[in-house]
Amino acid sequence: MDEIVKQAMARWPNVPYCYGWLALDRRGQWRIRNEYAQQHGLSGDPLRHPALVAFIERNYVCDEHGAWFFQNGPQRVFVELAYAPWVVRLHQGQFHTTSQRAFTPRSCHADEHGNVVLVGEIEGGNEGGNAGRNEGRNALHAALLHDHDLDAFSSSCDWHGEACGTDLGVFHFDGRDLPIEPIAEAEVPRRFGFVRQPRPQPAPQQRAQEPPSR
C-alpha cells in the first residue's frame, strides 16, 4: 500500500465507505459504475488511465470478511467482483495476474460453465493493516483464468473421458500434476473466502444496560 495512502488513513480514520461504484470484470478490467449502471445492472465504463489503474492495483486489499476494496486515500472503495478477486493469464507456460504479478497455482478447479478457477500464491502478497485473511506473502488467493487462455490451458491437461466425481482430469504445470476438481460457481466465494458483492456490515448490537441492583 502506498505510504501517502497510509498517512491519509491515519489523518482521517472515519471516512464513510463507498459501495457499488467500482467493479472488476471477468477479464480483469476495472470498471466505474455510476448510479445509472448500478440501477440497471450494467457493467459500467472501463478505466483506461494507466496511472489510475496502477494506483488501484497497488492499494487493492481484503478485509476480515473477505470483501475486497481499493484504499483510495482515507476511503475504502469496495469492489464488485464479477467472479473472483483476481484474473490470471497463461503465457508461455507461466501465470501472471492481469496486474502483472507472478501467480503460482496450488490447486485447480472447473465449474459447471467451463470457468477455470486456480488457487495459488501471488508474488508480493497484499500489504496493508486490514488485509485480513489474505495478508502475507504466502497466502492463497482464488483467481479466474482469463477466457482467452482456456485453449492453452486445455492443451496442458489430460481430461477424463467421464467425470468421476472427484476430479475431471489433470493439469500439467511446471513439472507438477494438479487434479482438476469440479466446483459449482456459486460455491466458489464461500469455499475460498471472498465476497462478490460487498455490502455494509451491520453495526454490532450492544447489550442493554441492566439497571443497578439495589
Could you explain how this protein is built, in words?
- Residues 192-214 are annotated as: Disordered.
- This is DUF2946 family protein.
- InterPro entries: DUF2944.
- Pfam families: DUF2944.
- The chain has 214 residues and is of the alpha+beta class.
- 16% of the residues lie in helices and 35% in strands.
- It has five helices and 14 strands.
- The protein has helices at residues 3-11, 35-39, 50-58, 150-155, 188-192, and strands at residues 18-24, 30-32, 45-46, 60-62, 68-72, 75-81, 86-91, 94-97, 102-110, 116-122, 140-145, 157-159, 169-173, 176-182.
- The strands form two sheets. The chain has a six-stranded mixed beta sheet with strand order 3-2-1-6-5-4.
Helix content range of the residues, please?
A: 10-25%
Q: Which percent range describes the beta-strand content? A: 25-35%
Mean pLDDT: 86
End-to-end Cα distance: 54 Å
Pick out the low-confidence regions.
127-137
Q: Please provide the ordered H/E string of secondary-structure elements.
A: HEEHEHEEEEEEEEHEEEH
Question: In short, what is this structure?
Answer:
This protein has 214 residues and is of the alpha+beta class.
